[in-house]
Design goal:
By secondary structure, the protein is an alpha+beta fold. The protein contains 10 helices and 19 strands.
């Protein structure tokens, strides 16, 4: 934390070494269902480097998620699971045609935002299923040229539809389809955008693809490193890298259902509503990049757990913004409800711009605020009950009573 004479960490520029690690996590090719490049390739080695000997790592059969556990096997201890998800929105090959075009779907991307951007395709070796290779240098196209578009499309009155998208691999000559198929290309092959993050023009900003949700995984990893330096005695912490979030929170649901923590704090991206174009009529709450991390109220979130986070941040002067949700947080905070077990949950995030595009934009100060806000929260839980730590009865007995509130 900061002293009175120094700036707090979240008000300083992120050091290059830390930014480079964030860049490495976000660059890992981990499309939905193939997340091990991030979880096993980058984060597991990091966990093994920073963890005390007594900590353990959980791995799973049906997904490439991992959990760094501060007190493995100690199910009697109160526990909190912090979750980031490693999966990236991916596109997929639909069809290869004789002219060498690779027709694709666009999953959760708006078709218009993809045109012209470079991608990586991951086909399997046709003679060795399960052995993947990568094809680089392709771009996503739809019309070929403005000259081939009708008048409404030229003027912007009509947009690009998903079934118009294809990858241009610059194929020419004869047997184009057959040559691509010999490389192993086939329906279902995953495709991701090729844009590593870079520091932005404005101070402490950065931009690129897949802030959603490498940022959550980076936060969980950095928080684990902080706690490893001064381990907690009264609280079991499960630092979790989940999978399959983008198609329904299925990875976190499976992991949480197996380990059944007492608390879950999902860590994911959020929106900079103040800078979002064309949504004034929706009357969204004020939330902006560079003013701190976010905490979500509503849906299944626990008011008591949220209050602990907010108080910890108030005590340390860590900037925090409130968001609201209706029936679903849209994050891995729903994992316990979906898995069907009792758990107090919260959802934190970072207000970013241009979500689900190749130019997602964030602020390093918001990420650092989230890391140190969570550290302050865990330390607060550790100190509760005269140094004995938070208990399950605290969670059971501190539900908000609106019938006991005071009149203003």
């Amino acid at each position: 934390m900061a002293t009175k004479k120094t700036k707090p960490v979240w008000q300083k520029s992120m050091p290059s070494k830390q930014f480079n690690f964030m860049q490495e996590i976000l660059a890992a090719p981990s499309p939905i269902g193939l997340e091990a490049a991030m979880s096993y390739g980058v984060i597991k080695p990091f966990f093994e480097t920073i963890k005390p000997k007594s900590w353990g790592i959980h791995q799973f059969k049906g997904n490439a998620g991992i959990v760094l556990d501060t007190h493995p096997g100690q199910d009697d201890m109160p526990s909190v699971m912090l979750i980031g998800h490693a999966d990236k929105i991916r596109m997929q090959v639909r069809q290869i045609t004789s002219d060498g075009k690779i027709w694709i779907n666009c999953d959760s991307f708006i078709p218009n935002v993809l045109i012209g951007h470079e991608v990586k395709i991951f086909p399997q070796n046709p003679k060795k299923p399960g052995e993947y290779r990568v094809i680089e240098g392709g771009t996503i196209e739809a019309l070929g040229a403005i000259h081939f578009a009708d008048a409404p499309t030229r003027s912007g009155e009509k947009g690009i539809k998903q079934n118009m998208l294809y990858i241009e691999l610059q194929m020419h000559g004869e047997d184009r389809k057959e040559r691509l198929e010999k490389l192993g290309l086939k329906a279902g092959d995953p495709i991701i955008l090729d844009r590593p993050i870079k520091r932005g023009f404005s101070a402490d900003s950065f931009y690129g693809a897949y802030l959603d949700n490498g940022l959550g995984c980076f936060t969980v990893s950095e928080l684990a490193a902080l706690i490893a330096k001064k381990p907690l005695k009264n609280l079991r912490v499960l630092f979790t890298i989940a999978t399959h979030e983008e198609i329904g929170r299925f990875g976190a649901t499976a992991i949480a259902g197996e380990l059944q923590p007492d608390m879950i704090i999902a860590t994911d991206v959020n929106h900079d509503y103040d800078a979002a174009p064309g949504i004034a009529a929706k009357r969204m709450n004020s939330m902006t990049m560079g003013e701190g991390f976010t905490i979500t109220t509503g849906a299944v979130t626990s008011d008591y757990l949220n209050s602990l986070i907010e108080q910890a941040c108030l005590d340390e002067g860590i900037p925090l913004q409130r968001d609201m949700s209706g029936r679903d947080t849209g994050t891995d905070a729903m994992a316990a409800a979906l898995a069907g077990f009792d758990c107090a949950v919260s959802s934190i995030g970072f207000p970013i711009r241009n979500m689900h595009t190749i130019s997602e934009t964030g602020h390093t100060g918001d990420v650092l605020a989230a890391i140190y806000g969570m550290q302050a929260t865990l330390q607060k839980m550790e100190r509760m009950n005269r140094g004995k730590g938070i208990t399950r009865d605290d969670l059971r007995n501190q539900h908000t009573r609106l019938d006991q509130v005071k009149s203003l």
